[in-house]
Recover the amino acids of this structure.
């Protein structure tokens, strides 16, 4: 009996020490969302900008990232862990820790529903409402395997945050179209965006915004305009309806489709725009065809 008592006491002490000093979170909130992990990540970034916090979300992967929220005189760390259940549902587990008052929280939480717990639940209920509203603002349909178009084009090269992609398009839409028109260049289709580098950790996007044109010997020379050819190749295709700010939700849908179907792709999507964002209108009616090039089998 004495040995059993010592063993039990040891287990209790070890468990208590683990709970107070090793357990990474003070509190956990879990819920499900009808969205892919990529869409959830982008929505967390957008929601983060609506809070008092000015600290960017720290990215490790689409299933693991950390958000820092300033709450009064406290700094709360939200560690997001996302698990895809299926194509339209994800499990969200958020481990929450008060950077400066973690030990006190762990002491109080077993004995009462603390303000820290109440505030954490309220914060994530607010996020869940934010996410549900965002999901109403766009829709994505997967077409499947297709062929990327081939064209000659005039382009402007840009590097922005992904969320500022639409701003780059709007700032250069009139410039490119008027330059083409004024110099008598023949257009050859709707404008498009070609991603060259998509860096989630650095939160940067390098891309070319282009107008398809008929190649000629009289193309205007401008320091910010380059000319290139896009070559046709196999690609996955989706159709996106919504504001161009969030058209990358289609990128995540295509990456998910590629993973589900064991298709290797290049993470360099191309978007073809059928509406001029400068003209306004009902955004859910804006149409974008999105291509994700398939890697060569060689």
């Amino acid at each position: 009996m004495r040995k059993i008592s010592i063993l039990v006491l040891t287990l209790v002490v070890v468990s208590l020490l683990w709970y107070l000093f090793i357990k990474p979170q003070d509190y956990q909130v879990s819920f499900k969302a009808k969205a892919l992990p990529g869409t959830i990540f982008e929505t967390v970034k957008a929601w983060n900008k609506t809070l008092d916090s000015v600290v960017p979300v720290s990215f490790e992967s689409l299933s693991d990232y950390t958000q820092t929220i300033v709450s009064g005189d406290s700094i709360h760390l939200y560690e997001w862990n996302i698990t895809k259940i299926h194509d339209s549902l994800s499990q969200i587990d958020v481990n929450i820790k008060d950077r400066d008052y973690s030990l006190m929280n762990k002491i109080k939480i077993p004995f009462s529903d603390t303000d820290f717990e109440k505030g954490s639940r309220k914060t994530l209920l607010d996020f869940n409402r934010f996410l549900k509203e965002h999901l109403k603002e766009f829709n994505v349909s997967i077409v499947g395997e297709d062929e990327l178009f081939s064209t000659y084009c005039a382009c402007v090269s840009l590097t922005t945050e992904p969320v500022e992609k639409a701003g780059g398009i709007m700032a250069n839409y009139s410039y490119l179209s008027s330059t083409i028109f004024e110099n008598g260049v023949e257009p050859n289709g709707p404008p498009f965006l070609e991603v060259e580098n998509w860096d989630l950790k650095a939160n940067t996007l390098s891309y070319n915004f282009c107008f398809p044109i008929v190649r000629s010997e009289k193309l205007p020379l401008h320091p910010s305009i380059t000319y290139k050819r896009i070559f046709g190749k196999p690609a996955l295709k989706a159709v996106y309806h919504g504001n161009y700010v969030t058209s990358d939700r289609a990128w995540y849908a295509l990456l998910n489709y590629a993973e589900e179907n064991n298709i290797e792709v290049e993470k360099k999507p191309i978007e073809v725009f059928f509406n001029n964002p400068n003209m306004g209108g009902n955004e859910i009616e804006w149409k974008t065809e999105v291509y994700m090039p398939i890697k060569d089998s060689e």
